[in-house]
DNA sequence: AATTTGCGAAACCAATTAGTTGCGCATATA
DNA sequence: TATATGCGCAACTAATTGGTTTCGCAAATT
């Protein structure tokens, strides 16, 4: 199924899963231990992340290790590019100064 | 209402609205002309973007000009920070080379 | 003064989402 | 061989989403 990366990272639980896997690969059970929800719910999140290539899996016996694939996340970074010049602009910095002076 | 920036940018129409407003401020009607959907549907998207401070409004008679506020978008950039070192790593570049050789 | 225009809000609807429980299957372990 | 474990899948559910149409109101235009 065709999936959108932006839609995938919209959910806070999925973002937390990504942050976990960015540190080290884990099995679904190990991931689920970090959350309140059921293993199956985590499994569904993994499926969604997998479908938009944010993850890669490596089977090891009956266990599946899910790795984070940083490549796809670049899509988000590419879209963010249009705002970078705004963040860096002198006008933006001036706005900040004026905002702080009000408080 | 408390709104999540990640959830706000999950919708492709809302991302397109942001990209429009990043260039110049516009009224809801002007924005709606760029899309197939109704003005009211666009109005709902604007509301969501507004609720998480991605927009600012300036009333002018009966018209409302919506401006893009780049400040809030930094939240996304902050979260993306954790992947930046992965993109820059030599291992990642090596992966790319190996992937290309396979094809 | 009457009409048109720009807008947000409300009511409604179909589709999607994020969760649940129950299941089956393959792989380990006793 | 019998049992326990790790996993994905299917069915169901409540809540949310993105769209529609209808409406009311204030501001502009005639």
Automatic annotation (TrEMBL), chains A, B:
InterPro entries, per database record: ArsR-like_HTH, HTH_ArsR_DNA-bd_dom, WH-like_DNA-bd_sf, WH_DNA-bd_sf
Domain HTH arsR-type: from-to ranges: 1-88
A GO molecular-function annotation: DNA-binding transcription factor activity
UniProt protein name: Transcriptional regulator
